[in-house]
Amino acid sequence: MAVPKFDDLYIHLIQTLQQLGGSGSTAEITEKVAEILKLSEEDINEIHSGNRTELDYRLAWARTYLKQYGLIENSSRGVWSLTSKGKDITSVDKNIINKFVRGHNEGLKLLQPEKD
Fold it and tell me: Quick check: 7 and 98 in contact, CB under 8 A?
């Protein structure tokens, strides 16, 4: 199995944090998601760019979207936790999350002053 797209990782990331007791380090999350998805060593070690793996890259985007949606938070550097909203999640609609986050970011762009 190849590494899923970042938005297909949402539910696996949430399940991982639930299994880790509500929070975990970036490394713990990556390891547990790879285990849940039964990724091969080749998939786990596939390089995105530099020394960053494709799995790490896509999980970073998944964390960003889930944070902006309010399901997880970055409690301290490299540690991610479920919010009260995220603790009882059993499924997610990636389209709703994507639309919310992209719409929110578009709104922020509109609030910025134009450059001369």
Answer: yes
* E strands, 20-60, in order: 23-25, 47-49, 52-53
Q: How many residues does the chain have?
A: 116
Instruction: Give the model confidence (pLDDT) of 19-77 as tens digits.
Output: 999 999 999 999 999 999 999 999 999 999 888 999 999 999 999 999 999 999 998 88
CA 57/CA 6 separation, integer angstroms: 8
Burial grade of 116 (CB within 10 A; 0-12, 13-18, 19 or more): exposed
Q: Which residue is it, tokens 């910025």?
A: 112
- Gap between the Cα atoms of 80 and 9, Å rounded: 15
Query: Which pTM was predicted?
Result: 0.86
Phi, psi of 26 (to 5 degrees): -55, -45
CB within 8 Å of 17: residues ≥ 6 apart? 23, 24, 29, 72, 80, 81, 82, 86
